[in-house]
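Hi everyone, sorry if this is the wrong subforum. Our group has a chain we'd like a structural model of before ordering constructs, and none of us has done structure prediction before. Sequence below.
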Amino acid sequence: MQKLNAELTRLYLAPPTGGTRSISLAFKRLAGDGEAGHWERLCQVANALQVELGLPAPAVSISGTGAFGLWLSLEKPVTEAQAQEFAGLLCAGADADAAPLPPFLDQASGKWAAFIHPGMGASFAGDEGLDIQPPEAGQVALLEGLESIGPAQFAQALEQLRRPGGAALQPSRPAHGAGDTPGELLLKDATLEDIVNFLHSKNIEPTFRFLK
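Answer:
Right subforum, don't worry. Here is the predicted structure as tokens:
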């Protein structure tokens, strides 16, 4: 677990002097969502973070208890109040979630919370947990390419969100045309290795045949 702990420390753990270096947003299924409405909301927030606010891509997780999560890494600690304000402005009504960092076994559900490849998120809708412990190497691979939000970036994004009409989105479920959900747009980025790893996590051994 040494490499995984090193990546979690690099991205999310704050020094003992106080503050927080992580902002985690939980996306739970709401009434009327259907199977993937919470995943669609996560995609909308993730895209707004990168496109509208110019911030690095966040990590994506499954909770083990029916929710998806976004994990924002901060280069320097901010106060809990700043983190909560940022979360609330980014997604109206949201709180900076205090969930423990994945991976971990949720005792209530018996399933594992874990970081996942964003391209596979839609495949987890309705079953947001793993039956087996995720491989450490896979978790490290999902984290090692991520960047932290610099102090100037965070200050600029917070100021942008504070402006009238500057919030990235509203809490309602986004509307999409048929075949144009964020889940589908992200799923196309999944590699064959991602798909195989996902199937293995479900204890499914894939077989392949070539069509002529």
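For your construct planning: Strands lie at 20-28, 59-62, 67-78, 104-105, 112-116. Residues 2-201 form one domain.
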